[in-house]
């Protein structure tokens, strides 16, 4: 780069463009809210740096030379790009531009998290939201490696460098084939399931939801009949639809509408609840993250009701399928 051209400043280009557009130093000075002498000096300085005249002085105003016409288009582009860059930087500094990477797993992506993302995208449409389906261990690893901004999962424990909070406490339900006698109940107790073949998930990571269910049975000295372990809730509910057995799901999973499957809530005395947590790095003070956390907490405070419905029946939900409010 010619070191002589390094002396060109943004104001040189801005003043030059103003004179070119107005066709007059006086009109350009008025537009820039400065006096004419400093404007004239800046344009002359630019001409000295370039070693060529940019304007032909006329009795009434000025006209561009060939060199001036060549410079005008590029100068306008430079000023426009500079303004765009500064504006994008300002917007990014407020967390309104950029990319946020979110880890999800299992039923976390079926209801509550999509509502958070929907609200967030309405407020920050220029931020790209990217979801990654990762189990808990992979989420923690990706957070430490800064490949994720934050994550949602069920069973977090204290982790160095990370912090988490409970956003939602969900009630558990029994996924039952519609022809099964238990499908007619308004509520079920864990004791009602001791003789029933259960399909539980996920096989890994452990400990996880399957271990939580086992602890609930163990706490009441109940026998659990484990028919099959599967990878995820979708597979479990599909097997329920096929008549293989029953399964346990949380509020969010009741959005899985498979033909022939109904969801009956467990009795509150069983204390069959599961937390949904949000986790992120402690040292991440970025506006992107702070804005998302703010939206997530606002959604948390809404305490939205989930209303599961039976498939293949009338619009009025029968006993056992009445909606309830998430605690």
Automatic annotation (TrEMBL):
All copies of domain HTH lysR-type, residue ranges: 8-65
Region (Disordered): 299-327
Pfam families in alphabetical order: HTH_1, LysR_substrate
Record bears the keyword Cell division: no
Entry keyword Phosphoprotein: no
UniProt cross-references to InterPro entries, sorted A to Z: LysR_HTH_N, LysR_subst-bd, WH-like_DNA-bd_sf, WH_DNA-bd_sf
UniProt keywords, alphabetically: DNA-binding, Transcription, Transcription regulation
Similarity remark: Belongs to the LysR transcriptional regulatory family.
Name of the protein in question: DNA-binding transcriptional regulator, LysR family
């Amino acid at each position: 780069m010619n070191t002589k051209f390094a002396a060109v400043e943004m104001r040189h280009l801005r003043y030059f463009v103003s004179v070119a557009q107005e066709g007059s130093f006086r009109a350009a000075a008025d537009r820039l809210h400065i006096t004419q002498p400093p404007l004239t000096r800046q344009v002359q300085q630019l001409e000295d740096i370039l070693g060529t005249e940019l304007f032909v002085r006329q009795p009434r105003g000025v006209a561009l030379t060939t060199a001036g016409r060549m410079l005008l288009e590029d100068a306008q582009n430079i000023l426009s790009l500079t303004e765009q860059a500064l504006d994008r930087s300002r917007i990014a500094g407020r967390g309104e531009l950029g990319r946020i990477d979110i880890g999800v797993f299992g039923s976390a992506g079926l209801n509550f998290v999509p509502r958070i993302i929907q609200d967030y995208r309405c407020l920050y449409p220029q931020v790209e939201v990217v979801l990654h389906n990762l189990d808990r261990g992979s989420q923690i690893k990706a957070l430490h490696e800064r490949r994720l901004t934050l994550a949602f999962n069920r069973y977090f424990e204290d982790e160095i460098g990370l912090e988490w909070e409970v956003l939602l406490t969900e009630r558990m339900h029994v996924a039952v084939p519609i022809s099964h006698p238990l499908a007619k109940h308004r509520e079920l107790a864990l004791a009602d399931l001791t003789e029933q073949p259960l399909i539980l998930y996920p096989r890994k990571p452990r400990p996880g939801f399957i271990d939580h269910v086992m602890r609930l049975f163990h706490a009441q000295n109940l026998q659990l009949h484990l028919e099959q372990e599967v990878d995820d809730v979708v597979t479990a509910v599909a097997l329920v639809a096929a008549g293989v057995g029953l399964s346990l799901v949380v509020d969010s999973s009741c959005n899985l509408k498979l033909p022939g499957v109904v969801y009956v809530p467990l009795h509150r005395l069983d204390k069959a609840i599961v937390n949904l947590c949000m986790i992120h790095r402690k040292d991440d003070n970025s506006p992107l993250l702070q804005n998302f956390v703010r939206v997530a907490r606002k959604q948390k405070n809404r305490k939205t009701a989930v209303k599961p419905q039976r498939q293949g029946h009338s619009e009025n939900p029968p006993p056992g399928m009445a909606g309830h409010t998430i605690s």
